[in-house]
Amino acid sequence: MAKGKTVNLDEKLDNLVRRREELTQLMSGKNVTNPEEFVSLSKEYAELTPVVECIEELRALQNEIADLGGIIADKHIDQDMRDLAEEEMFISRSRLPEIGKKLNILLLPKDLADEKNAILEVRAGTGGEEAALFAADLFRMYQRYSERHGWKFEAMQLSDTGIGGLKEGVAEISGKGVFARLKFESGVHRVQRIPDTESGGRIHTSAATVAVMPEAEEVDVVVEEKDLRIDTFRSQGAGGQHVNTTDSAIRITHLPTGIVVSQQDEKSQHKNRAKAMKVLRARIYEAERVALAEERAKTRKNQVGTGDRSERIRTYNFPQGRVTDHRIGLTLHKLDKIIEGGALDEVVDALTADDQATLLAELSEK
After folding, report:
1. In angstroms, rounded to a whole number, what is the distance separating the alpha carbons of residues 146 and 216?
2. pLDDT band at 237 (very low <50, low <70, confident <90, very high)
3. In sequence order, which ranges of 213-300 are alpha helices (DSSP H)?
4. Residue 341 has what DSSP assignment?
């Protein structure tokens, strides 16, 4: 049975290598005259390249091990040479598991949403003003994290408390692999710290909700006009400031799902509608992704991370300077660096590695 699996894998690897060779020929010739087709081929080539390079690295190592085995088995070769070959064989064999794991990860089914931009939503939860202050901290954390990765972070909607807190913040984050890096951030984030207004030094616990959704294109989610109820109203500003004199604010209700999106940051009703539709499509797309993930989890009887927002996923303990991600039991005593966006990659990398390990385990069971 194991032999059959090996043959199938070798055939699959051969097909991937051949496909990249075909793409090279297609793009170097004059066969492709359509710019869109060329872009599509280029994208496929870019995705295949790290896989093929890993295949070539693995096969070169396997050939090297076979050659060394021949030297070791040849009694006519000098003993010193054979001893040296045995040492090299040990080193080469020790590299096999690492390269094999790397290749397995590259061969894992891709989440089609990974390369998409993302819509980030941060909302204050339980805890009053302290929760709103924490929500503002998280919103800034993701903004700084985006800047470190060279992504574009554009605030779409901000509802502040007037004293530094944030009731709700929505942003569009654009760049390479945004959703792949941020998709595990969805959930309830809890904070434990002593508020500035607390004279007794007591630690308060509050929470904020984070939702990260892949930005959906019109081709991803088809929204029929007949399925929308659109209401307009006058924007509400803090303390009477920045209030539009026209009914430019907009509320869109998607009747089939009941999803409601409001947008009032722009003075133009047209711009508010465009932003609201972007968020609406993202929410519908994410709801479909979550439903599909849950269905798959039921069929394989192994619950995978679905970004369920009802789950408490992480705690930020300020007195102890630590951050704990409860899903994987990871604790880092780098709270300041994480909240500044600098060390957040350590958490993201660990979550990504855990997700890959889960997928690899599932594939091995099939």
Report:
1. 19
2. low
3. 269-300
4. T
Contact 208, 185 (CB under 8 A): no
In this structure, which amino acid lies at residue 165? G
For residue 19, the one-letter residue type is R
Of 116, 240, 215, nearest in space to 156 by CA: 215
CB neighbours of residue 362 within 10 Å: 14
pLDDT digit string (tens) for 75-110? 889 999 999 999 999 999 999 999 988 888 888 777
Q: Give SS3 for 189.
A: strand
Q: What six digits make up the tokens of 256?
A: 């089939």
Q: What is the pLDDT of residue 364?
A: 61
Q: Point out which residues pair with 121 in neighbouring strands.
A: 170, 211
DSSP label of 266 = S
3-class secondary structure, 272: helix
Coarse DSSP helix, strand, coil percentages of the chain, rounded to the nearest 5 percent: 50, 20, 30
Q: At 72, which amino acid appears?
A: I
pLDDT in tens, 141-162: 999 999 999 999 999 888 888 8
Alpha-carbon distance of 261 to 212, in angstroms, equals: 15
- Assign residue 276 a region: left if phi > 0, alpha if psi is -120 to 50, beta otherwise? alpha
Instruction: For 251-264, give the DSSP string.
Output: EEEETTTTEEEEE-
Alpha carbon separation from 287 to 103, 214, 292 (Å, rounded): 31, 11, 9
122 burial type by CB count under 10 A (0-12 exposed, 13-18 middle, 19+ buried)? buried
From the CB of residue 333, how many other CB atoms can be counted at a distance below 10 Å?
Answer: 12
- 175 DSSP assignment: S
Provide the residue type at 308 as one letter: D
d(CA 358, CA 81): 43
pLDDT in tens, 21-33: 988 888 877 776 7
Asked if 323 contacts 334 with a C-beta cutoff of 8 angstroms, the reply is yes
pLDDT of res. 302: 35
Q: 52-73 burial, b if ≥16 CB within 10 A, otherwise e?
A: bebbeebeebeeebeebeebbe
Give phi and psi for 240, each to the nearest 5. 80, 0
